[in-house]
From TrEMBL, chains A, B:
Residue ranges occupied by any HTH marR-type domain in the UniProt entry: 9-138
PROSITE patterns listed in its UniProt record: HTH_MARR_1, HTH_MARR_2
Protein name as catalogued: Transcriptional regulator, MarR family
Species this chain originates from: Streptosporangium roseum (strain ATCC 12428 / DSM 43021 / JCM 3005 / KCTC 9067 / NCIMB 10171 / NRRL 2505 / NI 9100)
Pfam families (UniProt xref): MarR
Nuclease found in the keyword field: no
Domain of life: Bacteria
Gene Ontology BP terms: response to stress
Keyword Lyase on entry: no
Gene Ontology MF terms: DNA binding; DNA-binding transcription factor activity
InterPro entries to which the protein is assigned, alphabetical: HTH_MarR-typ, MarR/SlyA-like, Tscrpt_reg_MarR-type_CS, WH-like_DNA-bd_sf, WH_DNA-bd_sf
Keywords: DNA-binding, Transcription, Transcription regulation
DNA sequence: TATTGTTATACTCTATAACTATA
DNA sequence: TATAGTTATAGAGTATAACAATA
């Protein structure tokens, strides 16, 4: 008779919170090491493809006026550009500059802290973890 | 021959990010539904026990002047109290009021979104998840 | 009339520097 | 001298309301 009493939800909450915190700490450390706020890092990562101001605000889940200020600061720093849309003269297209794209690349690749932790798992652990994470994500977002 | 090719770290990153995002969304939704900012919620949760201003700033990992403004706003709202320390006349002790403690209770118990998702796992899934979360937390924080 | 983006305004969070009172 | 807390100041992120240009 193995001692496999299933843990209750409370037993899982603490280690889950620890994983979440570590994940966020790693990501914000990367952003600030490149002199970016979290909001700016998120915007830059979203700008893989050019986006209109409203599409960007939707993506960042913030008000359009907020996006205006955010992008204005990033434009002043040379990370993005705002061009008039050729299709709709009300609209503007936000594009990452070469410098912005290069920084975004470093931001993405510099998620290596989290990536390395996942690499350090054994193949068995990885195989076991994947469906559990999928399931948990489904449960949390439904 | 089962198709158990172990997933690489990239395969795990996306579902992990989804879990993390859902977790944070749930927590901030709880805080804002009670009219609290994230910083205020964190402070209130930290104040299970009375703390000095500097101990609170340490806990929140922010500057002391930041804690002054934060606690001043919460004090104006009747959530906390600042009393002179009887031991060190330079120091003040921050204590949650009855209203603040009641709100903190609701904040803690209202983590039910995450809790419910964990409850919805099968006993087998919970048993499998716990050691993996522990291991991942260790890898991320070391 | 509705939409896109901006400006004006205001509040919170955050930090640095200078200050007071106390140790 | 060093520490605890505050104030003054500044900048970033956030939202609401009002506005111009365009659809």
């Amino acid at each position: 008779m193995p001692d496999t009493v299933p843990p209750d939800a409370g037993d899982l909450l603490e280690p889950l919170a620890r994983v979440v915190r570590s994940y966020y700490d790693a990501l914000t450390a990367v952003a600030t090491s490149h002199g970016l706020s979290g909001a700016q890092a998120r915007a830059l990562i979203a700008l893989r493809e050019p986006l209109s101001m409203s599409a960007l605000a939707d993506h960042l889940v913030c008000d359009a006026s907020n996006a205006t200020g955010l992008i204005a600061r990033m434009e002043a720093r040379g990370l993005v550009r705002r061009d008039p849309s050729p299709e709709d003269r009300r609209s503007k297209v936000v594009t990452a500059t070469a410098e912005g794209r290069e920084l975004a690349l470093r931001l993405r690749s510099a998620m290596h802290t989290v990536h390395a932790a996942l690499e350090a798992l054994t193949p068995q652990e990885r195989t076991a973890l994947l469906p559990l994470l999928d399931r948990l994500g489904d449960l949390l977002t439904r």
